[in-house]
Amino acid sequence: MTSGVASGPGAKLLLVLACSVVVIAGLQAAGPVVVPFLLAIVLAVALLPALRRLHGWGLPQPAAVLLLVLAVAGAIGLGATRMATTAAGFMETLPSVQERVVGTLQGLGVENPAFLVPPSMAVGFAGRVAQETLGIAHQLLLVVLVMAFLLLEAGEFEAKARSAFGKNSDAISRFQTGARKVQAYLGLKALFSLLTGVLVTVLVQLVGLPHPALWGLLAFLLNFVPVLGSLFAAVPPILLALAELGPGEALATGIGFLVINFLVGNILEPRAMGKGLGLSPLVVLLSLLFWGWIWGPAGMLLSVPLTVSVKLILENFEGGKKIAVFLGGAEQLPTR
To answer: What pLDDT does 1 receive?
Structure first.
């Protein structure tokens, strides 16, 4: 009788919840090690089409991998160096900027500006993004090394998968379809993030704000964060414009960010991405909050690829297919 009670639905639910707590705590504790590995996996998946193209042009696979590794290492190193230089100068002036923002808001009749624009909320997230980007850059060797080995093994992965799941397994085709969606998403997202970063750099230069490269790099990185990234990228430059230049320039900066985000996020990206990754918008938001809670800004940057990967895994197990349906978007439901 005791055994029956212990194996009942309530006991199983408690066991699942306990295991979930242990896994989440482990993921949080292992973040400094796990996040660079995940970044390397995401980069490897994103670079697979470029690797195939270089190989198709007659370049041997080791040479193609070396070329891609050098390109990624150079881009990360250059971006991190530029961000470190500009962020250091900005952080030195941050306390005085915050005081001027509060003073300007008080001059405009705001009774409690410190409550309306708390400094930790205004620039804290952008600062954490910069710090974590530099932290990942310090682990550049690990990221690039893992990515290189993944790319070298990419040619044998399909053969190993067919050997493991069977030549005619639907799991392989589902994983390939999902991988192509993730590759397309990452490629287009990188392109539009670069466009956003360039436009923001031009905007802040026209307005006359200091450190335009910093705001452009942050806009590029935060554009990978769904839903909330554009908001987080816009707040610090607007506050800086309010402190350094005045309300008119701050309003112009805000309008400029609004136009850029509307053009890129609401017109260009949806048309290019089509149906997207097959995730529900609610799931995208919840995954953003969950992975952000687990790993901070780095988790937000990786939230969409991680959620797509979880959905692909669930689709290939009988017990997870029902959960995968709830993660999917409306376009995946059968038509009546």
So the answer is: 45
Q: Please list the alpha-helical segments (H only) found in 166-209.
A: 170-207
Q: Are 188 and 269 in contact (CB under 8 A)?
A: yes
Q: Mention every residue, 6+ apart, whose C-beta is less than 8 A from residue 44.
A: 146, 147, 150, 151, 154
Contacts of 207 (CB under 8 A, 6+ apart): 241, 245, 249, 252, 253, 256
3-state secondary structure of 274: coil
- pLDDT at site 199: 95
Query: Tokens 């399909």 label which residue?
Result: 158
Distance CA 284, CA 286 (A): 6
pLDDT, residue 212, reads 86
Distance CA 181, CA 131 (A): 30
Read off φ and ψ for residue 111, nearest 5 degrees: -70, -40
- Domain regions of the chain by residue span: 32-332
| Cα angle value 270/272/275 (rounded, 5°) | 60
Residue bearing tokens 């050997």: 163
Which residues in the chain land under pLDDT 50?
A: 1-5, 118-120, 122
Hunting for tokens 């295991």 — which residue is that? 19
How far apart are the C-alpha atoms of 280 and 299, rounded to whole Å? 19
pLDDT the model gives residue 253? 92
Burial label, 282 (beta-carbon count in 10 A; 0-12, 13-18, 19+): exposed
Q: Show the tokens assigned to 172.
A: 């392989």
Other C-beta atoms closer than 10 Å to the C-beta of 184 total 17
Query: Is residue 221 within 8 Å of 133, Cβ to Cβ?
Result: yes
Nearest CA among 26, 125, 32, 132 for reference residue 76: 132
Tokens of 189: 């997202």
- pTM, full prediction: 0.77
Rounded to whole angstroms, the Cα distance separating 27 from 20 reads 10
| pLDDT confidence of residue 200 | 94
Alpha helices, DSSP H, located in the chain: 2-6, 9-29, 31-56, 61-107, 113-116, 119-138, 140-165, 170-207, 212-222, 229-244, 247-261, 269-273, 281-295, 297-301, 303-315, 321-327
